[in-house]
Amino acid sequence: MSDDERREVDAVLNEPARVWFHSLPRDLQWHGVQVMHDLKRVGVDRSDVLAAALLHDAGKAAGPNGPLVRTFNVLAVRLAPAWSARRKAIDYRVARGLDRVLAIAYQHPQIAAERAAACGCDPVTIDLIRSHQDYQRGRHDPLLQLFQQADDRH
């Protein structure tokens, strides 16, 4: 992340969220910054929405992450949808092995939303984080739909 991007991030997040963001793996930071930039390009300048862009996938850091884990998750969902879907309800905090990996993948919006709330983030930020993979709701919520489109491009 460049110095300009760091300043841009720091201007959007409150102190606890800023500390959390900077502790995330670089790929999650990069993704959040890209989504934030995409939203800015389409005219979004609300700090609550931009904070959600930065933190929406941060729940993935609750367990193993990175390109190989993401590849596994995509393959599991596509090749074994019933098997992987059973991991949605598993408590990620006590799950182990592949169960934990998939539980975190499915539950990362809730994990990140809870952490954002603990950091004192705005309710809109928390709601966007929690809902960013709820495409059914996105069809009826223009802000969420815009957010999802930016996320899906990155």
Brief summary:
The protein is mainly alpha-helical and 154 residues long. The protein has ten helices and no strands.
Structural account:
This protein is mainly alpha-helical. The protein has one domain. The chain is built from ten helices and no strands. The chain has helices spanning 3-12, 15-23, 26-41, 47-55, 67-79, 81-85, 97-118, 123-131, 135-138, 142-152. Helix 3 packs across helix 10, helix 4 crosses helix 8 (123-131) and helix 7 (97-118) runs antiparallel to helix 8. The radius of gyration is 15 Å and the shape is globular. The two termini are 16 Å apart. The mean pLDDT is 96.
Q: What portion of residues belong to β-strands?
A: under 5%
The succession of helices and strands, N to C, reads: HHHHHHHHHH
**Share of helix, binned:** over 70%
Taken from the alpha-carbon principal axes, the silhouette is globular
Distance between the termini: 16 Å
Helix and strand content put the structural class at mainly alpha
- Residue runs with pLDDT of under 50 for 5 or more positions: none
